[in-house]
Amino acid sequence: MQLSDFSFDLPDELIARYPLETRSASRLLHLDVQGQYHDYHFTDILDLLQPGDLLLLNDTKVMKARLKGKRATGGAVEVLVERMMDKFVAHCHIKASNSPKEGAELFIGPDEVKVTVKGRHENLFIVEFSQSILDVLDKYGALPIPPYFNREAESIDTERYQTVFNDPTKLASVAAPTASLHFDEALLKKLEAKGINKTFVTLHVGAGTFLPVRTTDIENHIMHSEWCDVSDESMALIRETKARGNKVIAVGTTATRATESAAQANGGELKGWTGDTQIFIYPGYEFKVVDRLITNFHLPESTLLMLVSALSNRDNILNAYHHAVDSQYRFFSYGDAMLIDNLNVK
């Protein structure tokens, strides 16, 4: 399949650069198993799910991973912590007028925390901090909100670019699992009262989620690597849900990639797994776990648009997206949501 197969026109004014006042106030577009779409409000998810269904939620927390600093010569730099390897060493993206060489020293904040470039790991820099990375991020970091917001992080993002159920011990993502941003405590309690179950998985979202696909033939694209953890307990709940005829609903593409990676790593068996995943889901992929997906609207020609097209199909997704544009739905991280049914699950 060609990259151009996943293109669509999106007016700039439909990009949601700020959240709504209330998390669950978003709209919801349901794409059913017949490929028909239906307009709802997000709180209608209560009526669209059944008692005994299972929600898969990603409990990662977003780091204040963006740091502004300078070179020894005074030139401005920006360091984005992608993955912490230990207390002092991380793999990072570095923006500077010239790419820093091994041994280069950078300085963060007024007390000039030293960051030394130790080498490269694929497209990332290996850097060593002179102080604890988490301490430096807490003191000087900014939330790495998506580039399409075209603004700096603001105070509203501190709360709203995190899920209400994030696990503080899992502070390692550089992007939010944005489908989960629609859930507030009140809605979660109503879902629980209806008998809809939930379980948590973890995928630490990397900055690669925003990188464009640069190959014309999508099968030549190489996915970025992300760490995930799916417990035996979560997979047991998935098996039990399917056995009684209920649906497994992934909340977001990250929960989808985590659980499908676990199944893939176990030869199709629904068992727990922890490790790095580069799973690339596009049309033709056979889902082992996910029956339905709650997700936001994604960028044209993105791997996330390809993933949702694998669950329904490309024509159904693009038809629904064209309807969303015509109906003024809000797009991307702070935008509205979709509920997509797996065409192969009746």
Automatic annotation (TrEMBL):
Name of the gene encoding the protein in the UniProt record: queA
GO biological process: tRNA queuosine(34) biosynthetic process
EC number(s) stated in the UniProt entry for this protein: 2.4.99.17
UniProt xrefs under NCBIfam families: PRK00147.1 (NF001140), queA (TIGR00113)
Pfam families given in the database record: Queuosine_synth (PF02547)
Self-association state and partner proteins as the record states: Monomer.
Entry GO terms, CC: cytoplasm
Presence of the UniProt keyword Isomerase in the record: yes
InterPro entries in UniProt: QueA, QueA_dom1, QueA_dom2, QueA_sf
Single GO MF descriptor: S-adenosylmethionine:tRNA ribosyltransferase-isomerase activity
Name assigned to this protein: S-adenosylmethionine:tRNA ribosyltransferase-isomerase
Signal peptide (UniProt feature, chain positions): none
Keywords: Cytoplasm, Isomerase, Queuosine biosynthesis, S-adenosyl-L-methionine, Transferase
Catalyzed chemical reaction(s): 7-aminomethyl-7-carbaguanosine(34) in tRNA + S-adenosyl-L-methionine = epoxyqueuosine(34) in tRNA + adenine + L-methionine + 2 H(+)
